[in-house]
Amino acid sequence: MIERHAASLVLLFHFVFVVLAVFGGFGVLVDPRWAWVHLPIVAWSSVVNLAGWTCPLTPLENRLRAAANESGYDGGFVHHYLGPLVYPQGMPRRLELVAGVAIVVWNGALYACIYWWLSRGAPVS
Prior knowledge:
Blueprint: H1 2-23, H2 27-30, H3 35-51, H4 57-67, H5 77-86, H6 93-119
């Protein structure tokens, strides 16, 4: 029972991590120090996608599910949970590469806008 809840917490943490990789840059508008948390998340997320790695949270979730007598899944979190939403036929490697590049480009553009905004003397929040 506890293993199933722990696996669900890992899944939730994974989801929050992905959301922060995409939208966490907006937190820099509230407090620029947030960049020290957000930029490593962006770096890890983009590297995992570009390199085709499986995030260590996935095997942890699968081990916890196995301990709870539940089935795990092959591939990573994005492949299993998010990929089918975007690409129902199965997420090809090129989409994973596009996701990695998109994370870098999106966040680079967001940080450039924030820098421009702050350099003009605009208030942060």
